[in-house]
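This protein record is not my work; I was only asked to verify it. The record follows directly below this note.
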Amino acid sequence: MLNNWNDSAPIYRQLAQQLAGHLLDGEPAEGQPMPSVRQLAQQYLINPLTVSRALQSLVDEGFLEPRRGLGMYVTEGARRRLMQSERDSFLRDEWPVLRERLRRMGLTAKDLNWEHA
């Protein structure tokens, strides 16, 4: 899997965000193991140390838990907590900018169609 890493954040942080996106989608499910560091390094074509840092950041945030000799597992409630964290971040950081842009373009809620992509 080729990724378009950019200079906006360290690669381990970008990977952690991608993995968090998968967790939001329920992959893997709560209580299930994450792919191994080696598998993720091969999948994303990056150094295993970078993968380890990404996984550790998800552990630090409480979304994964290490199980000695077994690997990393998705914690119970991780998806709900991650979704709340993402919502809070969106409403705090992205929504004000987006709302102002919509206002400048003269778009209202009636102009936006949530049901179709």
About this structure: The radius of gyration is 17 Å. Residues 2 and 44 are 6 Å apart (CA to CA). The mean pLDDT is 94. Strands lie at 64-67, 71-74.
